[in-house]
Amino acid sequence: LGRSRGTDYFKIADQLTPTERNYLDRTRRFVDDEVLPVINDYWERAEFPRPLIDKLAELGIVGDGIAGYGCPELSPIANGLISMELNRGDGSLGTFLGVQAGLAMQSIAKLGSEQQKQRWLPAMARLEKIGAFALTEPDHGSDSVALETSARRDGDSWTINGEKKWIGNGTIADVIVVWARDVADGQVKGFLVERDTRGYDARRIDGKGSLRSVWQAQITLTDVRVPEADRLPYANSFKDTGRVLAGTRAGVAWAALGHATAAYEVAVAYCTERRQFGKPLVSFQIVQDRLVKMLAEVCSMQLYCLRLGRLEEEGALTDTIAAIAKMNNTSKARQVIAEARDLLGGNGILLDFHVMRHLADMEALHTYEGTETIQTLIVGRSITGVGAFA
Ligand code: FAD
């Protein structure tokens, strides 16, 4: 699917429909022409690339495959290819799209009322409205199932109190999907909170060494009043939250493929040009061995992704499959990018060569949406029947 001499050794491109191919090409052009020339500066300045976000809207790729409500018609594979390509360009942009469409829009599409869908989804697909998904708390990350943010019903409205951490878009979103525990029945429920609601306070988390061009927030909710009409009616327990997360974990597997492809392509190009001991680096057997192993991992990640897409199309994507894919692809991508970084020698740590940014960004992908360990334990529970983490 990549370029240079290509990473498509298993002819994945032959498996794509013309429409999927079109989304791939369109996103690829955007990344090559608009993202790569400018993104390192945004990353270095930790600046949100607003002009690129506006162009994303024009591309018509925001909607995560949601049917109707102004969202583009995207098959799971088209959606995955978009995520792969955006992340090949930059992890912050890819993460922005994952939060906007995969987490916030999908929460509304899967768990919201008809009125909520009509109000938010078309505007979010056009990026006129930005969304966030607030699950993680300062004291509950891997065990977000134990979240402490409380929701108390009082007639026709709810009062929400608590703290959230690491919430992508939390300072800029128009609507934040806040997960809170109903004090009456102890179940986790979802609420649509608008940013200007009294008691909603979001502060940007600064000093990040990863995904520097997309912002996460620490949020305090103090007696935030939400009308019953803004509660997600089909979010009645943490299991419903999990329905949203299974899809986005598969999306991270595609994203990891994009990061690994970028690093591999830079490494091949660099080792072809760079000469040491009077010869190009690619003429040394050890360098070839390393490039081949990187390619083999990239190809295996592609095969995972293709099957993920097909299984999603068939409605057969399970939590366990999404967990295996997220675990495998983020771990493999991390290794491939580290190899590329090393093959570039000293230049490997310069932003100009892009690999360092991917190496840093991959660290966040490895952790968010459930760490590698948590994905491993989800799969371990499936193969042994024994839950080792709850
Ligand atoms: P912890 O849960 O404290 O984990 C620390 C370490 O302990 C990890 O290595 C973990 O694997 C390990 N560990 C934990 N439990 C076990 C166990 N039972 N057995 C063995 N090891 C264990 N959240 C949102 O809600 N919305 C967002 O938009 C969002 N965006 C994010 C963006 C970024 C850049 C980052 C870094 C995080 C984001 N998150 C978001 C939060 C993310 O999902 C959590 O960081 C992640 O789930 C891990 O939680 P934690 O950071 O609290 O780590």
Automatic annotation (TrEMBL):
<dbReference type="InterPro" id="IPR009100">
    <property type="entry name" value="AcylCoA_DH/oxidase_NM_dom_sf"/>
</dbReference>
<dbReference type="Pfam" id="PF00441">
    <property type="entry name" value="Acyl-CoA_dh_1"/>
</dbReference>
<comment type="similarity">
    <text>Belongs to the acyl-CoA dehydrogenase family.</text>
</comment>
<dbReference type="InterPro" id="IPR045008">
    <property type="entry name" value="ACX4-like"/>
</dbReference>
<keyword id="KW-0560">Oxidoreductase</keyword>
<feature type="domain" description="Acyl-CoA oxidase/dehydrogenase middle">
    <location>
        <begin position="132"/>
        <end position="224"/>
    </location>
</feature>
<keyword id="KW-0285">Flavoprotein</keyword>
<feature type="domain" description="Acyl-CoA dehydrogenase/oxidase N-terminal">
    <location>
        <begin position="17"/>
        <end position="127"/>
    </location>
</feature>
<dbReference type="InterPro" id="IPR037069">
    <property type="entry name" value="AcylCoA_DH/ox_N_sf"/>
</dbReference>
<keyword id="KW-0274">FAD</keyword>
<feature type="domain" description="Acyl-CoA dehydrogenase/oxidase C-terminal">
    <location>
        <begin position="244"/>
        <end position="383"/>
    </location>
</feature>
<dbReference type="Pfam" id="PF02771">
    <property type="entry name" value="Acyl-CoA_dh_N"/>
</dbReference>
<dbReference type="InterPro" id="IPR036250">
    <property type="entry name" value="AcylCo_DH-like_C"/>
</dbReference>
<protein>
    <submittedName>
        <fullName>Acyl-CoA dehydrogenase family protein</fullName>
    </submittedName>
</protein>
<dbReference type="InterPro" id="IPR006091">
    <property type="entry name" value="Acyl-CoA_Oxase/DH_mid-dom"/>
</dbReference>
<dbReference type="InterPro" id="IPR006089">
    <property type="entry name" value="Acyl-CoA_DH_CS"/>
</dbReference>
<dbReference type="InterPro" id="IPR013786">
    <property type="entry name" value="AcylCoA_DH/ox_N"/>
</dbReference>
<dbReference type="Pfam" id="PF02770">
    <property type="entry name" value="Acyl-CoA_dh_M"/>
</dbReference>
<dbReference type="InterPro" id="IPR009075">
    <property type="entry name" value="AcylCo_DH/oxidase_C"/>
</dbReference>
<dbReference type="InterPro" id="IPR046373">
    <property type="entry name" value="Acyl-CoA_Oxase/DH_mid-dom_sf"/>
</dbReference>
